[in-house]
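USER: Write out one fold?

ASSISTANT:
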Amino acid sequence: MKLYWPAQFDANEWFLLLSLLAVGGFSLWLPRRFPLIITALLYAMGPVMAMNADFLLGVPPIDVYNINDSGRYEVFDLLFYLVYAPFSYVFVYFYNRWRVRGLVVSLYVLGFSALGVGYEQIANWCHVFQYKNWNLGYSFAIYVFVQTLYLALAWGIRQIYEHTKREDAPEWP
């Protein structure tokens, strides 16, 4: 796959660089909370889930938006996906730190989904997105779904990790 350079370096590229520095720096500044392998998985899952959602929604036949300057895959599209790594880590970090449980999980997901929509609106002002048949209401629904799935995956990873730490745990094939 060929990656293209942006036609010009403008607001969307600056926004992505500053986002990556700000959120990435914040996530690295947080005290260590998880084992290294769990941290690596949490950082990896965000970009993977974002890419899957965008490749489903942002290409034909659905094709409801473009990212950055064109419909072509640019170098800064890759940076865009990397921004999801620290966001997803921070999402699970505070879920774990604040010990969110019960019905509060729904409020937590709704709150972070609202933050996601707010971030997306700022990104939209900086021309990171070119919407075709899309609006932020759809984004909110996608964020709720993806963040719920993300918490379920993080919970599953934790269960597997805890299971493998037990002395009586069988060896994995």
Helices lie at 11-29, 36-57, 75-97, 104-125, 136-165. The chain has one domain: 11-27+36-162. Strands lie at 65-67, 129-131.
